[in-house]
């Protein structure tokens, strides 16, 4: 009887383990299937906006010739989601002289002629490519609309890209699609893990992806609450340009202007081996700050012209006037911190007598003065 009970106990344990493994497998398959469906839905939405046909099957990946490793292989160290990227776009011979984001967009829309994506030889180190990265659900508000509109009006790139896993939403997203026909949306599967750790904050996902894109393609990365004031063309002569927010926060990554294969960005990426998912600022802002402190010649610094007024000076943006913003390259809107003070509709900016009101009117109307006497 004791032997029977022993066998029964062992059988029960084994059965329990089998059931648990079976349920976990079902959960994994369900999640994987959802990611595929979400990706195809996103691509279908892209095709609707651009009157192009989205691919209904996975994009084929061509291996390189084996003589030289692909940059994606390096990214795999810390981000396994890059295995879903179209390898040939990042690794073939054409990638050396083309806008990779342009080719990525065309590939997702089944366009095989990538000759329009060749980069012009304009003498600058940094290509005139502006892109944004947004993951998870993202509702566009007035400030997001105006910030991206400023890229079109001030920087005047050939195309503006938004890379993400979910199509943005909102009234001002729809308006942006109409007012900025240069805007192109690229589906990129959201990373789930960085350096084998679950990424707690969506910002960490954007942090690593923006570095990847800059390493492969170069260009101008902007947060959706950073607004262009002057052309960045003078900064395109440097290998990399960033700005210090403050010593405690670290080196800002809301604006990064960089050439391809920037050694500074490569060091930033290499430091993801020390990824800490419990510290919001450690992995990008603090890492960049310490790298710069170790070698202050490693990047061109534009702290005053990217991040002033600072977050601790927000009254200069939201309450007062008279701040000399026209001398800046860009102004950070600090929308997450001050959302309660942000205009909810565009008409509010007409008579909003603040520094940010001046900037918003300058971008939208071309003049910064109040419009109280508008007929």
Automatic annotation (TrEMBL):
<dbReference type="InterPro" id="IPR007577">
    <property type="entry name" value="GlycoTrfase_DXD_sugar-bd_CS"/>
</dbReference>
<keyword id="KW-1133">Transmembrane helix</keyword>
<dbReference type="Pfam" id="PF04488">
    <property type="entry name" value="Gly_transf_sug"/>
</dbReference>
<keyword id="KW-0472">Membrane</keyword>
<keyword id="KW-0812">Transmembrane</keyword>
<protein>
    <recommendedName>
        <fullName>Alpha-1,4-N-acetylglucosaminyltransferase</fullName>
    </recommendedName>
</protein>
<feature type="transmembrane region" description="Helical">
    <location>
        <begin position="7"/>
        <end position="29"/>
    </location>
</feature>
<dbReference type="InterPro" id="IPR029044">
    <property type="entry name" value="Nucleotide-diphossugar_trans"/>
</dbReference>
């Amino acid at each position: 009887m004791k032997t029977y009970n022993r066998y029964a106990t062992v059988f029960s344990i084994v059965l329990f383990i089998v059931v648990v493994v079976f349920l976990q497998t079902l959960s994994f398959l369900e999640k994987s299937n959802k990611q595929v469906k979400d990706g195809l839905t996103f691509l279908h939405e892209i095709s609707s906006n651009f009157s192009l046909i989205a691919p209904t099957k996975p994009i084929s990946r061509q291996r390189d010739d084996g003589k030289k490793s692909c940059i994606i292989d390096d990214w795999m160290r810390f981000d396994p989601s890059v295995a879903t990227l179209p390898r040939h776009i990042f690794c073939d011979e054409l990638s050396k002289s083309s806008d990779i984001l342009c080719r990525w967009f065309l590939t997702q829309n089944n366009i095989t002629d990538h000759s329009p994506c060749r980069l012009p030889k304009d003498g600058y180190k940094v290509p005139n490519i502006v892109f944004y990265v947004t993951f998870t659900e993202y509702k566009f508000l007035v400030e997001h609309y105006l910030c991206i509109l400023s890229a079109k009006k001030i920087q005047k790139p050939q195309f503006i890209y938004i890379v993400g896993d979910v199509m943005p939403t909102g009234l001002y997203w729809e308006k942006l699609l109409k007012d900025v026909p240069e805007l192109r949306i690229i589906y990129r599967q959201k990373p789930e893990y960085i350096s084998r750790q679950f990424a707690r904050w969506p910002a960490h996902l954007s942090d690593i992806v923006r570095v990847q894109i800059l390493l492969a393609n170069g260009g101008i990365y902007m947060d959706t609450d950073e607004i262009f004031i002057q052309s960045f063309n003078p900064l395109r002569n440097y290998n990399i340009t960033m700005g210090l927010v403050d010593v405690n926060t670290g080196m800002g990554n809301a604006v990064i202007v960089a050439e391809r294969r920037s050694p500074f960005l490569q060091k930033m990426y290499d430091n993801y081996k020390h990824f800490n998912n419990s510290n919001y600022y450690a992995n990008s802002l603090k890492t960049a700050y310490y790298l710069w402190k170790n070698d202050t010649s490693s990047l061109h610094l534009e702290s005053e012209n990217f991040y002033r007024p600072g977050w601790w000076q927000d009254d200069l943006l939201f309450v007062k006037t008279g701040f000399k913003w026209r001398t800046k390259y860009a102004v950070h809107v600090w929308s997450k911190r001050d959302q309660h003070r942000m205009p909810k509709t565009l008409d509010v900016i007409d008579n909003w007598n603040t520094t940010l009101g001046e900037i918003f009117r300058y971008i939208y109307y071309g003049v910064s003065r109040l419009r109280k006497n508008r007929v």
